[in-house]
TrEMBL record:
This is PCI domain-containing protein. It comes from Taenia asiatica (Asian tapeworm). It comes from the Eukaryota. Residues 6-175 form the PCI domain. The chain crosses the membrane at residues 34-54. GO terms for cellular component: COP9 signalosome. Residues 262-298 are annotated as: Disordered.
Length: 298
């Protein structure tokens, strides 16, 4: 039997969507007619989208595979079902007011709000609550935080809620579907990103080369400074040794200062020692010279 019946199945009362690429492997021997496939898939698509099965599944945020199926493409651009599918693929919350779309249920509006938050995370990493409340037409901060928390648990957004600053801090987010006409812009963005990466790699290589050169110069200067310091320490040690030797030497002919009668200083050489015949050392008495001077003055 054609795998198209596996699009929806019931498991413990919960509807789940199987991978859509199974649809491309339908058994053509049983469903050989294009119109049979078209009718069945149209009915299932109506059931999936209109009956809130598709929007109610938390971890499905891309619907481009449905658009690539031949029978969906044959619906035409003016079909409300095709427009509704395009709304979930590319649209945001404000787009649903267009009369070309059928009325949306509460589950579909909730899914569309979540898709709008994902689109806002594409170009901004810090999104104020006020911006999200305005774009989603919400007044309850609690409802906004519940939408974001569900996206975080579904791994659609990696980030955190900064309640003090009233903003959503985004590290990364999943990508939504993109149109074929957006491919040139996507290529331009990828080329720009590649250029920035190459520029960063060149700067990094230049910094590594410069750091290696500076490290070699630093090592050379360190060796030179260490050698100079050793030479200075050696010379200072030699100077200290020479000063120690000089301090231990006796200085001869040390002068002693005396005053005459007028208070004038008399510079007399230090009397030399002499050894008497008896072996005793004698020293001239400088007072005798002064007394002789007095007598001569008289």
């Amino acid at each position: 039997m054609c795998a198209i019946f596996q699009l929806l199945h019931v498991s413990s009362g919960f509807y789940q969507i199987l991978p859509v690429h199974y649809l491309r492997s339908c058994d053509q021997t049983w469903f050989g007619s294009f119109w049979v496939q078209f009718l069945i898939f149209t009915l299932l698509l109506i059931f999936a989208i209109i009956s809130d099965v598709l929007p109610s599944i938390l971890d499905i945020f891309t619907f481009g595979d449905l658009r690539d199926i031949e029978c969906v493409e044959s619906l035409g651009p003016n079909s409300k079902l095709s427009n509704l599918l395009n709304l979930f693929c590319f649209g945001t919350y404000g787009d649903h007011k267009n009369p070309s779309f059928p009325p949306l249920s509460a589950a579909q509006l909730r899914k569309l709000r979540q898709l709008t938050i994902i689109s806002a995370c594409e170009y901004r990493h810090h999104i104020p609550y006020d911006v999200l409340l305005k774009s989603l037409e919400l007044t309850s901060l609690r409802e906004l935080e519940d939408l974001i928390i569900d996206l975080i648990y579904a791994d659609a957004i990696v980030g955190k809620l900064d309640q003090q600053k009233r903003m959503l801090v985004v590290e990364s987010a999943i990508a939504r579907d993109f149109k074929q006409e957006d491919l040139p812009k996507l290529k331009m963005d990828l080329d720009s990103w590649s250029d920035r990466v190459n520029s960063s790699l060149e700067k990094l290589a230049s910094n590594v080369t410069r750091a290696t050169t500076l490290r070699a110069e630093w090592a050379e200067n360190r060796v030179r400074v260490s050698s100079n310091q050793n030479n200075v320490n050696f010379r200072m040690q030699q100077e200290d040794n020479r000063m120690d030797v000089d301090s231990n030497m006796d200085v001869d002919d040390q002068l002693e200062i005396y005053l005459d009668d007028n208070g004038e200083p008399l510079l007399l050489p230090r009397p030399s020692t002499s050894t008497s015949v008896s072996g005793e050392k004698g020293r001239r008495n400088p007072l005798r010279a002064l007394q002789k001077g007095r007598k001569g003055g008289k």
